[in-house]
Amino acid sequence: MSDGTFEPKIVGFLCNWCSYRAADLAGSSRVKYPPNVRIIRVMCSGRVDPTFALKAFELGADGVLLAGCHPGECHYLEQNYKAMRRFSMLKHTLRAMKLEEERFQLLWASAAEGNRFAEHVAKMTEEVRKLGPLSWRRNWIEKGLDDKEIEKFLKEHEEAMEVPAR
Amino acid sequence: MSDKGKLALYWAASCGGCEIAVLAVNEKILDVANAFDIVFWPCVMDGKVRDIEKMPDKSIDLCLFNGGIRNSEQEYMARLLRRKAKVLVAFGSCAHEGCIPGLANMNSRDEILQFVYKDSPSADNPKGVLPEVETKVPEGTLHLPFFYDTLKTLGQTVDVDYYLPGCPPEPERIWDAIVAILSGKLPPPGSVIGAETTVCDDCPRKREEKKIKEFKRTWQIIPDTEKCLLEQGIVCCGIATRAGCGALCPQVGSPCIGCYGPNAGVEDFGARMMTAIASVIDSEDPEEIDRIIQEGIPDPVGTFYRFSLAHSSLRRSNRAGNGKPAAKEEEAEVSGR
């Protein structure tokens, strides 16, 4: 954020067999794409528990990308279908939590699709950039209240907790 | 002065069921009275906050605190009792994980006050009066607690020694916990006093293979009495929920709703439920999967986080107006945590 523009932080869970290799290919063939995705390599997209995505948002990610092999091409036969169902379920819940759609995305990219991976990252980065920072933890802090003000309330309670007997 | 221990109980944002659950230990409540002098229990006996304030720090041996922290008075009481108590127990689901009051974290303070005081069908408030923190009257200034935007659990407010899960905790578990505390046979501080298995382990229903084409609401079918409820398409939270209740609900054909909280090792109850429930959907077509989920689970937060929204990874819904760059000091506060 050095020049004032917002750079979204996106956490990408990439499967070892396809999508990570797609990212690798994008790198080795020098495809240019924004450096906003922090890549975490997992053995399979089916390994990605919804907890991972929630944890990423909790710790300050502005977006989460889940990427795996195309349906039918999973190294572990059908675990990416599992990923597909979990993605759908978590997306449904996050929608109810008023999270913008663009912040949580699913991509199928094979080991040969370096360009597809790079294009998707570029597109997602732009979409999340437009939304602005998420910073979920800011939701927890009392709006318009800092610790000092809470302390002030507590002090008042200490003084006013009980109506003195007449 | 007797040499008995000192016991305090307090009730913050909760329904009061926990207080009743303490009394449900029946005649053993006399044993509790034999072991402890009850110094503070507003629900049951007279007692003044001033008296607690005057007690030396750490002079209460055990405090059972139920309820979440919804306003500044409850926060004050939580901090006060933390200071005075040697052992502070988050008693019941509200203190442990926010429970039903925590579901209000789907809305902001303004929305809640607007509905409760103005829009709800039973509201009779022609002048549109909302509670104020300070009100000046001829006799002086009246104070009301400040209503927070986000409900916190007790553990998010002060250090908690032990958690006793349940909405409310079952009397037998309460008794077990009191015995454990009295005899000093306790797990390490910060842990949950309870079983480390799930409700499914206590459930007598037969489990075969879970393949679900359609989720059903409880009013849509009369479930088979032998078969696992989840296999019949009813969303049952037994898989992620800590044992302790004896699987009371599934035994009578009602799905587990997760009131005993996450089992040991489950970081986020809702996430564990989503993982389990999504995995058994019998479809490989994204559109069909979406349809099954949206038709079958119209209220995902109420289904997966009914008891644990405040305790979950995300704690509350995203606020409107988020997305703007954080102010400098606010950013510092966020990253400093």
Strand order of the largest sheet of chain A: 2-1-3-4
How many DSSP H or I helices of chain B? 14
Total strand segments of chain B: 10
Structure class of chain A: alpha/beta
Question: Approximately how much beta-strand content do the residues of chain A carry?
Answer: 5-15%
DSSP strand count of chain A: 4
**SSE string of chain B:** EHHEHEEHEHHHEEEEHEHHHHHH
On the 0 to 100 scale, the average pLDDT of chain B is 90
Short description:
The complex is a heterodimer of chains A (166) and B (337). Chain A is 42% helix and 14% strand.
Topology of helices and strands:
The complex is a heterodimer of chains A (166) and B (337).
Chain A: E1 10-15, H1 19-28, E2 37-42, H2 50-58, E3 63-68, H3 79-96, E4 104-108, H4 114-131, H5 147-160
Parallel strand pairs in A: 1-2, 1-3, 3-4
Chain B: E1 5-11, H1 17-23, H2 28-35, E2 36-40, H3 49-54, E3 60-66, E4 69-71, H4 72-84, E5 85-91, H5 93-97, H6 99-102, H7 109-119, E6 134-137, E7 140-143, E8 147-152, E9 162-164, H8 171-183, E10 191-192, H9 199-202, H10 248-251, H11 269-279, H12 286-296, H13 300-304, H14 328-335
Parallel strand pairs in B: 1-2, 1-3, 3-5, 5-9, 9-10
Antiparallel strand pairs in B: 4-8, 6-7
